Structures are given as C-alpha cells and as structure tokens.
Amino acid sequence: MGHSFEEAGISQILTIGEVARRSGVAVSTLHFYETKGLISSFRTEGNQRRYARDVLRRIAFVRVAQKVGIALTDIGKALDTLPNDAAPTRMDWERLSLGWRDQLDMRLQQLQMLRDTLDDCIGCGCLSIDRCKLRNPLDTLAKAGAGPRLLWLATDDPTEE
Question: Is 91 inside a domain boundary?
Fold first, then answer.
C-alpha cells in the first residue's frame, strides 16, 4: 500500500482511447466536453491528444452531475472553481452539490407534480382535458412561451444547455 502510480507501472498520461475506455464515454463525448471547457488535454509532437489521469475523476464528476439533471453550463461553472490540474475531491463534490440542492429539490417537486397528474395530462398545454390539474384555460400561458409552462414554473428555461 502507499505505492505511487509510477511504482505500480501505471502511466499518469492517457490517450483519448484509454480515457474513453476507462470513463465509459465515447471519444466524441470527450471532444464535446473539451470544447465546453469541462476537461482539457495537451498535444504530443504528433498532434495527438493526451490527458492527465485526473481527467477520469473530472469526467465522472460531469457524468454524475448530468445524471441528476444538472445542466452542462452549471457543471462548467462549478468546475471553473476548481484547479485545472487536479481531480475534484469529495469535499469539492459536497460543496458544489450543496449549491445545487435547491435546484434539485425544485425538480423533485416538478417530477412529483407530473407523476401525480400524468394519468390526465402530461402538461402539454392541451385545452381538451377538462379535469387536468395543469389545465390552461383559454390558452393564457401561450404568452409565456411554448411547452408545459406550469411544469417549468419558477425554473430556468429547460431548453437552455
């Protein structure tokens, strides 16, 4: 125990294929994350991408945050508060996830509302189901924009990413 990666013969530098295999995400996703500034690489003399091993934890961080519904822009802002040359720690995750708590609580409320009304209406703004709890009489919500406005109430525009 206590051996370094080097002592164990494990490289600190990974190819894009190794990162894709280890992280479980496609190479195209890695490229996308890089264009969004979520991860970074450096180039070899032959212009091939290489990644520091800590990128694996950053990718895991991104994937977990996405899985719970955090927008990539918010994930990027969170990662901007961390050093680029280090993997996020457990304390980093605790601090950042605490900041997302209110947003997640709101989403939980919306999901419960949708679940409880799903048998009558999916929140589409339909005017034909008179017993829908999300009913939009006289299409008054049309002024607020397209989509299920009552379900998006008090949240950011869900189409923004």
Answer: yes
Structural domains in the chain (count):
2
CA distance 19 to 41: 11
Buried b (16+ CB within 10 A) or exposed e, 75-88: beebbeebeeeebb
Whether 108 is in a domain gets the answer yes
Nearest to 88 by CA among 100, 101, 72, 75: 75
Domain of residue 89, CATH code: 1.10.1660.10
Q: Same structural domain for residues 66 and 93?
A: yes
Q: CA-CA distance, 104 to 24, in Å (whole number)?
A: 25
**How would you classify residue 160: left for phi > 0, otherwise alpha for psi between -120 and 50, otherwise beta?**
beta
112 close to 134: Cβ distance less than 8 angstroms: no
102-103-105 Cα angle (round to 5): 60
Both 87 and 19 in one domain: the answer is yes
Residue type, 125: G
pLDDT digits (tens, 9 = 90+) for 115-146: 776 665 555 555 555 555 556 666 676 677 77
